[in-house]
Structures are given as structure tokens and as C-alpha cells.
Write a structure and sequence with these properties.
Layout: E1 2-3, E2 20-21, E3 33-37, E4 49-53, E5 68-70, E6 74-81, E7 84-90, E8 96-100, E9 120-122, E10 129-131, E11 151-153, E12 157-163, H1 170-179, E13 192-199, H2 218-230
Antiparallel strand pairs: 1-2, 3-4, 4-7, 5-8, 6-7, 8-9, 10-11, 12-13
Length: 235
Amino acid sequence: MDIGPDTPSAEGPAVTAAAATFDDLHTYAPLRPQLECGWGPPCPPGSPLQVQFNNLVDPATIDTAKVLVDPPIEGIVVTASNGGIWIEGTTEARTTYTVTVPAGITDVFGQTLGKDEHPSVTTGAAQPSISQPPAITTLDPFTDGKRLPIVTVNQPKLRVRTFAAEPSMFAEYLTYLRSRFEQGSKVPDWQVLSDRMIVAGRRRRPSLRDGDRPGRPARERARSGDRARRAGARR
């Protein structure tokens, strides 16, 4: 925008000799929502979802009861926070979520969202992991079919070795535990009783996908480990 030349002054008879140029003027954009992963990429399972707006909105105009998510999220909690909508719950892995953002939300410029909007976001896979037992684990000697559950997530195969042991080896065992993740660390020369590779079997479909649900209780994880072991699979 150019103003002038010869623009009069409010204080006296002088006028401007040259035009004044303004090149950073803009109008506000139409109100639009955007759905994002609250923890950012790669959006692992369990991540909250966040609806953000391109303009600052009036939080009093956000009716969280009208915010819907498809597919449903277990334990969902929806709140209006920091000029947006925060959606928490047990989101699943590798799932596309579509959120209904209700009409009627108003920004600080007086613009109102004229109709329901339906932005989407897709979660990623759970990070591969192995939930190992404590360094010292005792099995009940009075039970039949003793089992030591090990829960894995997104591991295509698992090598399981057992070694003969006696009390005199305990110090060496602790030393190995402390250094086993260091570069060049090797298993001591212990007598191997068994060495097998377990390959993941056919996928199961529980209520949440293949161990990707975070924060499961230890008892539930143990039951899952038993089921996976009986099926000849580790997940």
C-alpha cells in the first residue's frame, strides 16, 4: 500500500514529499482446525491428539461434549486447552483417527466455524521393546509347568538361552548385567542348557493391537506373555 506523496500533516501545513509504502499488511485467514499428534511424529500408540486452530479462538465457544472421535478411543478425555482441543486416551497403533470439530467455535476476530470439520491423523507403530524380568526372579517351586513371562512389542523373533548356574557364579552374573549393553560385551563362558529362536506367529487381534497398548498392568502383561508363549509367538 502506497500513501502519498503530498499527504497532509495533522500538526501543520507541511505535506509528505514522497509516498509512504507499507508491504506487510494482511487480513486474517478463515478459521480452520488442524489435527496433530500431541507428542509429534512418529505418533506412537498412547499419544494424545490435539486440535489446533490457525487463529486464536475463544475457549468458551468450544463444546467438548460435541467433539467426537472415530474410531472411539478407550478412556477418552476431551478438554479445551491453550486455544485448542486436547484429546487423551488409549490411542492404538497404526490407526487413522478422525475427529469431529463442532461448528460454532469462534475466533478472536469474530469468525465462527460454520460447519462441522473432520480432520484426521494416523498413529504410528509402537517402538520395539522387550520387557525383561528382574535380575533375580524366583519361580514358585510348587507349581506345575513353571513359566517366566517375557513380553515383547514388535519383535519379529526372540532368541532364548538358558544356562546352568550355581551360587559361585553370582558375582560374575551381576558384572555381566551391568555391562551387557556396552559395546563389545559378551556373555560369559557359561554352560548352555538350551538355545532356541522363537519366531513371531500369526497376529492376534485383542481389544488393542498386539501389545501396542501402553501402561498395561503387570498382571495383564504376564497373562499376555503366557498366551503368546503358548501360541509360539512373541509380540
